[in-house]
Amino acid sequence: MTPPSGQSLYIGGQWIASTATDTIAVVNPATLETIAHATAGCATDAASAVSAARRAFDDWSQMPLADRIALLQRVSSGIKARGDELAGLITAEMGCPIGFSRAAQIGLPLGDIHATLEVAKTLEDKVIGRSLVQNDPIGVVAAITPWNFPLHQILAKIAPALVAGCTVVLKPSEVTPLDAALLAEIFHEAGTPAGVFNLIIGGREAGEALVSHPDIDMVSFTGSTRGGRAVAEIAGRGLKKVALELGGKSANIILDDADLDKAIPAALGQGFINSGQVCAALSRLIVPASRRAEIEAIAIEAAKGWTLGDPADPATRLGPVANQTQQAGIQQAIKGALSEGAKLLTGGAEQPANFTGAYVLPTIFSGVDSGMTIAREETFGPVLSILTYSDEAEAIRIANDSAYGLSGGVWSGDLDRAEAVARRMHTGQVILNGAGLDLAAPFGGVKQSGLGRENGRYGLEEYCSPKAITRPQA
Question: φ, ψ for residue 465 (rounded to 5)?
Fold first, then answer.
């Protein structure tokens, strides 16, 4: 079911036109060409979507768990069937190289559904003491998602919400509305009951209207720390539950026994993948001072493999960043690091030669200390900072010297030693020796990186409200 022209809001099981007349230009960041215009939903649209979700909640929450699981299985099949189409849209919207789009931008949302369904049995009633504990769905959920991993962030929220028995209003980033609209088609074709899944597309007005609406019971938001504070403040007025996955400035500790020829090129990948537009990017590389020169040489050589290119070309490893505003902010951060005395090893703030789009050179700084802005503020681009330490205790201190705490990494020739260091890092996740993503494990942050967790059992429980039914003592 393709939305009719000009009708890109999916509310109550049908495509409708917005009550507003404004539109949002969707721009390909590689070419700077406008590829589509999306409806700019307003507060009235948000209210309509919430009303539809509220009407659907009673029936959906009482539907057998097996039926809710079956719907998500059909959605998963729909994503697989239209994976190439979805990947192409994401590449066109935000510049992600098509190879990475096909592998990660489609693979991750499928993994989100799988991880949720694997733990769905945890929703079963449990006997604790003399009480029966039932996991009630928390209610109507507003899911507000970013543009860097658009489908992944959507499914990481709505898959557990729907399985738990909640109904959902999704507001994706206005930068990437096209893949979300296609996902709404998939939900419709999967036989989703009217009002269970609703989509509005819009900017700040639509988002604020959702968060403040009295019939929203929970807000799940992924975005900047500044945006998360605003969401928490508005939601707090109504005592709504919030789950916030926010910014990061994550540390990657290279211990002195690490295999540098393996660790350093991989560490660049942990900072540069998706053009560095990863909230959990390991953008602070903390290395032993005694091996700094060796590490710098390996890093400079490894950076040569991160060549810029057309994101539609399967051979491209590094595409543009999402838009020119993002590009300008990253370039300003690079200039700021230079003005504060950081040593530029490769890259820089200039517009890459032969590219007219929102491209940023893969950039590595050395000689960075914890007080520099580049070491403290999220850059959200392909920029890596090398900091040095004299001993293990100092490495941990530097890693923890941050307002953020979303992710982290440790590299060592001894996994037990790496784990011991990881246990002392104040963050929500630590990757040892470049281990792959584990969608069964909880993901989320501490400090300014947010509240709550996504993925697996922990992610499913975010959308539940435990209720104790207590019998009298025999």
Answer: -125, 105
Cα 85 to the center of its chain, rounded Å = 21
Report pLDDT for 5. 47
Domains delineated in the chain? 9-246+449-469 (3.40.605.10), 251-439 (3.40.309.10)
* Tens-place pLDDT, residues 353-394: 999 999 999 999 999 999 999 999 999 999 999 999 999 999
pLDDT tens digits, residue range 96-113?
Answer: 999 999 999 999 999 999
**279 catalytic per annotation:** yes
Which residues make Cβ contacts (< 8 Å) with residue 444, sequence separation at least 6?
Answer: 243, 245, 406, 428, 450, 451, 452, 453, 454, 458
422 Cβ contact list (under 8 Å, min separation 6): 408, 410, 430, 432
Q: Which of 42, 93, 174, 245 is catalytic?
A: 245
Is residue 217 a contact partner of residue 241, using CB atoms and an 8 Å limit? yes
To the query of whether residue 33 is one of the catalytic residues in this protein, the response is no
The pLDDT tens digits of the residues spanning 297-322 come to 999 999 999 999 999 999 999 999 99
Per-residue pLDDT, 13: 97
Render pLDDT for 261-285 as a digit per residue (tens, 0 to 9).
Answer: 999 999 999 999 999 999 999 999 9
Closest CA to 85 of 183, 5, 10, 165: 183
First to last CA, the chain: 57
The catalytic residue among 93, 279, 454, 462 is: 279
Q: At what angle do helices 150-164 and 65-81 cross, to 10 degrees?
A: 160
Q: How many CA atoms lie within 13 Å of 263's alpha carbon, on the beta-carbon side?
A: 26
CA gap 162, 123 in Å, rounded: 12
How far apart CA 473 and CA 60 sit, in angstroms, is 34
Distance in angstroms (rounded) separating the CA atoms of residues 428 and 250? 10
* Of 412 and 40, the one with more pLDDT: 412
